[in-house]
Amino acid sequence: MDPVPVYELETHVGSGKLKGKVALITGGDSGIGKAVAIGYAKEGADVAIAYLDEHEDAENTKKRIEQEGVKCTLHAGDIADEDFCFKLIEEVIGHHGKLNILVNNAARQEVKKSVLDISAEQLKRTFDVNFFSMVHLTKAAIPHLTEGDSLIYTASINAYVGNQALIDYTSTKGAIVSFTRSIAQELAPKAIRVNGVAPGPIWTPLIPATMPKEKQEEFGVSTPLGRPGQPADLVEPYILLASEGSAYMTGQFIHVNGGGFMSS
After folding, report:
1. 96, 148, 221, 248: which has the fewest Cβ within 10 Å?
2. Does domain 22-256 sit in CATH 3.40.50.2300?
3. DSSP assignment of 9-78, as one string?
């Protein structure tokens, strides 16, 4: 990618906010997931990374995480497969002995000019990866979570403002917002917090992989801050939602969008 995404800020020095915790992050090999994985490691958490097949990216991320003196395990597979989702949670428990933080982050998108161009195959795949995987992983994780643990979901500004070029993707993000708020109500009596982050335009590998060159050049520049966000811009919100700093937050979304319009 040119420019290369920024995954770390020099100003972020860990203070043990997540020491002793185990976090599973889907899509943790690159993009927002990679930045969050490194940020969690800096705060003392052991990290499990789920990814599809980008083995080199995953190994590079693992190497960086282990430089923080914590444990990192890699788990390759397709989260669109319900069986893999349940197997993934079992693997994490087997390797780490517990699970405290589940970050449902992995996603896919395809740019289309019209809803008429979205095939049934694309629609199903997008929902399988972006939404149904989160349902499966949540169901698999809940029996292992206890008081003070956290479920965190990655939504999008598109769930609040719409996006005519990403109708299926945007629909999955709207479903994630509703799912998060519903599960938060279910798990509140157990003191398990359920929150999310709704990023605006963030410069990740997903952008050049799915957008035409002309759209990449204008990506994010229309925000009030005049630039796309970097993965590193998301790290602190994810740390907050995983730590005791958000002990009185559940069913909420943090909006990180460069000042982009929000209707909620």
Report:
1. 248
2. no
3. -TT----STTTT-EEEEETTTSHHHHHHHHHHHHTT-EEEEEESS-HHHHHHHHHHHHTTT--EEEEES-
3-class DSSP assignment, residue 151: strand
Return all residues near 29 (Cβ < 8 A) that are at least 6 apart.
Answer: 49, 51, 54, 57, 58, 61
Tens digit of each residue's pLDDT (9 = 90 or more) over 36-87? 999 999 999 999 999 999 999 999 999 999 999 999 999 999 999 999 999 9
Active-site positions? 169
CA distance 86 to 136: 7
pTM: 0.94
CA distances from 56 to 52, 68, 84, 198, 257 (A): 11, 19, 21, 28, 29
Return d(Cα 62, Cα 184) in angstroms, integer.
31
Closest CA relative to residue 103, chosen from 31, 49, 166? 49
